[in-house]
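Protocol step 4 of 5: obtain the predicted structure for the target chain.
Materials: sequence only (see below). No template structures provided, no constraints applied. The aim of this step is simply to have a reference model before the mutagenesis design in step 5. Sequence pasted as it appears in the construct record:
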Amino acid sequence: MALVRADAKITLILGGARSGKSRLAEELAQKHDGRLVYIATAEAWDDEMRARIAEHKARRGDRWHDIEAPIAIAEILRALPADTGAVLVDCLTLWLSNLMHANRDIAVETANLLAALDAVRFPVLLVSNEVGLGIVPENKLARDFRDHQGRLNQAIAAQADHAVFMSAGLSLVLK
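Step 4 output (structure tokens):
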């Protein structure tokens, strides 16, 4: 199966930290014509995170229009014009963390995102961490996060036309 699918409306790219997820998503998005939109869910709370964000922005270049959206991904997707070339959401893991920190209803927010993805008329690439490959976390908050992340990834993967798993910079097409 080809790594790039021109017919894919929704693409999910999963993997661990520093697996190459974001770089692959950027490369795939840039294969589309038109305006590229980057929806960033990260918030710069410290110098290390500011440096990560700056690195990502520098790598993307001028073709991208950046939108910071720690929580409002669905609303932004609905507001983008139909002629948008492609949208990259990076990343669902930080989005989930933001939702949990804000005490939002994860099931409602997930359903809202799925509905927005169903309605878009442009390609959307979503980056997410696979956090369920390690040991069972020792505390309830960490276990809840892992469980929510697993359910979120499953829901997005079920709706996606294309899914890729990244490990050590290598890609494995799942769907």
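Step 4 remarks: Residues 10-173 form a domain with the Rossmann fold fold (CATH 3.40.50.300). The chain has one domain: 10-173.
Proceed to step 5.
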